[in-house]
Each structure stands twice: as structure tokens, then as C-alpha cells.
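Give me C-alpha cells for this 123-residue protein.
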Amino acid sequence: MGVQDPICTLILGNHGTVRTEEATDGGNRPKWKNQQRYISYTNAVQNKPDELKVILKNNGFAGKTIGVCTIPIQPLISTLGNESVAWYTLKSESKGRPAGEIEISLLFTKDTGDEKNVVHATV
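Here you go.
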């Protein structure tokens, strides 16, 4: 069958979705080439997002979800400009069982030019 080809999807409420490229033959320790991803939201028009949803999927033959997790955003937004690097536990979608861990770096910045908040995420 082969080794997993993981893709990581980040969803910031209804403000945006970004995906990594496939980590071909990444197996259970994938590394993505272009790791930096950005999601922008305008605080004046939209509500602050409550969480960042992370979905790790095998892009290979079966295309199954490996695991998911949600990261509360409010504590991170309050530390605007400070990078947060942490490991998060992934759980299976169907049974909620542990399905591994993923290291994610998050940085919230404010673009004062057009009053947008930008989430920089590295997986």
C-alpha cells in the first residue's frame, strides 16, 4: 500500500481555510516544504474566532482523516505579537481516540494599515 501522504488543513472559524502541500511519503513524521500559512480576518467587521481547527488527512489511496484537534484562539490573541509553539493531540473523528500529535507554531499580528489581524501558522 505505501506510506501516508499527509495534508494539514487549518480552519479559523468562518474567516478562512488554508492547506499545506502533500508531504509525499511523510508517514507518521511528515515535514512540509512550504510551512508558512496565513489567514486574515477583519476584527471590525467579523467576530473574533473562538478556535482554530486542525485536520490532518492522508492524501494517499484511501484519503482518510488521520486526526483532528481544536486550538482555543482567545488566549493566543491576547498575546498579540508573541509566537506560541506547542504540540497538540490529534483525535480520530469517529471515536475521539488519540491519533498522534502535531506541532504548530502560531503568531497573531495586527496590520495597522488596514486594521486586519493576521494569523501566521506553521505546521
